[in-house]
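Fold these two proteins, one after the other.
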Amino acid sequence: MPKVKTHKGMSKRIKVSPKGKLLARATGQSHFNSRDSGKVTKNKRRDLVLHKTNNHLKTRIPYK
């Protein structure tokens, strides 16, 4: 059986936590952030846990 190819774009954007959850960077961090409240800016700093319905994305990054 040949090895499965990793989707490189997916592997750069998504991490798998030790418990198997998918983590992604929060969106909207590049510019126009001064208009956001402090609460929103603070929440953008942490990684987001993707919903469990997106677990099919794990097949795109098999060796991570």
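Now the second one:
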Amino acid sequence: MEFVETAVIGGGPAGLTAAYTLSKHGRDVVVFEADPVYVGGISRTVNYKNFLFDIGGHRFFSKSKEIVDLWNEILPDDFIDRPRLSRIYYNNKFYAYPLKAFEALFNLGFWESTKCMASFAYAKAFPVREPKTFHQWVRNQFGERLFSIFFKTYTEKVWGMGCDEISSDWAAQRIKGLNLGAAIVDGMRRSLGLRKKGEGAKSLIESFRYPRKGPGMMWEECARKINKQGGRVMMGRKVERLEYDETGKMWTVHVARADGGKESYAARNVISSAPINELMASITPAPLSLFHARDLKYRDFLTVVLIGQSSVQLPDNWVYIHDPSVQVGRVQNFRSWSPEMIPDDHSTCLGLEYFCFEGDGLWAADDRDLVELAKKEIEKVGLMKASDVVDASVVRQPKAYPVYDDSYARNVEVIRLELSTRFPSLHLVGRNGMHKYNNQDHAMMTGMLTALNICEGAQVYDTWQVNEDAEYGEAGVSGAMEALKSERLVPRKVA
């Protein structure tokens, strides 16, 4: 049995960032990635007949200097600056997103706009005290009428559940930087051309950086550099079982290869970006919190990629489909992400995203039926004619989004407590690994801080504060140190 200091489960942004940081510090690290071809997880770039497409669309924008520096270090010569252009499709009309005040007022009409403002005023005068659900949180921030127009339908498409079943935590985490007053002021300045570049909340940015051939470039290069630095990224390896020796404080990692072979490794540390329910089910001795792990839920999605020579001009990077008359939730325009994603200068390549649960009707549908549905719906919303489509591909992505239902926070809390006391050398990172709807830069930060904790031999940085605490989520490692100095977050020693 081979010994490694640290075994990393999953070759996505969090796992690879952890491995890159460890190998850069001269530490022994091995990454096990189940996919035999692609690294990057949900941030991978798929190649279909030389058409490249992103799974979900990943902007490279961060307020953390350490993350931006890391991107530049790994991929110094392959970033391009892209203008952000996205719209909302609702009730047969398109709205710029972020909203432009005059356009939104015109599209909604005078009376509807008046009702929206009255609804907002009422919500501010009579807020829901201590909102528990997504519906209540957004209603308090924007009013009931704007909630129903710009939040309800799209959110329920994404999550497959009512807005009263979704925890307010998700809204507070994802849209906490927005409020109607700021949006109106920002929208007025956009309409009048007065907004300066770089102003506004993170979700209102007007440009972003992007690898010229998709985010997979970043993670493929990261994997190469990990190998060059003495670490290893092993493809087609699925971790099936973890055994913990409480006496020797060592892990045995049992791995299944894509060719059917088996491998075992002894490891002092394990870093996991795997979904928590899968991870906990693989551990021996069985965790006491396994029931809580099994109760965690995930939302899956699939992308139908339509390729053709479109007669419709589409400048957007992506379009949010809020209209309930179609099932598609979002449309990506890959040429607008980067012209180098398309192998010629005339083809259009659109990715229609359908949110679903693994095993349901959409997920289990035949690819041909999904392509026909996508062709019908893309024409209905006016982004491409069905007759223009000459080829198509379908990509399914399980466990794309951790679900924030009313029990998730308690489940995660119980799991964290057991891991910190019983399995202190098992570290959770990333979106699925922590059951947190993190952006790519936040996922990377959890991997980086976890690696630094291992190098320090102590729990210096609290990775669970990433994307919740401003110093951790945006200022990065330096901000985390400032938080420690101010004693808002106290370091804990690893047992």
